[in-house]
Specification:
The chain has 175 residues and is an alpha/beta fold. 45% of the residues lie in helices and 17% in strands. It has seven helices and seven strands; from the N terminus they run βαβαββαβαβααβα. The longest helix has 19 residues, at 61-79. It is globular. The protein starts with a strand and ends with a helix.
């Protein structure tokens, strides 16, 4: 399993698609957008996932409970033999990684930090037009606080395919 963590608009989704092309075998791609799409509309707001006008994101207990169950479900797929590459945003940094580590306990996981300069991420956010302004800049650094990685890539300074190749090379090498 490969877990990519980076802020909104950092380039994770593009890297994931490239990883699926360069890694041997078939890899499933899941991520924060997958779980968000699966959540009921009732969890948009208080007690669920709240997105402020400035792009800040707050995760409530109801959303967290279902998100943690989803993480255990992803882990079950990996335990059943699926190869998974995960596109995540660790909103609370090291605490989010700890929750994933608990769900993935006993599995071989490559932890990847996807760095992107705040100005670059903000520019991508504006170009996309489907994000609340401020989200990318606010998450660019905060999602990495206290998180430990096996490898980090800089998506502002390299194309998605170049980042994917670096990750694939690191995945192929035993720790």
């Amino acid at each position: 399993m490969i877990v990519l963590n980076g802020g909104s608009s950092s380039g994770k989704s593009g890297i994931v698609r490239c990883l699926q092309a360069v890694l041997p075998g078939a890899w499933l791609a899941f991520g924060v957008d997958s779980v968000d799409a699966a959540m009921p509309a009732s969890l948009r707001g208080e007690g669920g996932l709240e997105i402020g006008a400035d792009g800040t994101v707050t995760v409530g207990p109801d959303y967290r409970r279902l998100s943690d169950a989803w993480a255990r479900g992803v882990a079950a797929m990996v335990r059943a033999g699926a190869r998974v590459v995960l596109d995540e945003i660790f909103l609370d940094g090291a605490d989010a990684q700890k929750r994933w580590q608990q769900a993935l306990d006993g599995l071989d996981v490559l932890w990847v930090g996807v760095r992107c300069a705040p100005d670059t991420a903000a520019g991508r956010e504006t170009a996309r037009g489907d994000r609340v302004p401020g989200m990318a800049r606010g998450q660019a650094e905060s999602v990495h606080v206290g998180v430990r990685y096996d490898i980090e890539v800089d998506s502002a300074g390299a194309e998605s395919m170049a980042c994917a190749r670096l990750i694939a090379e690191r995945y192929a090498r035993p720790a």
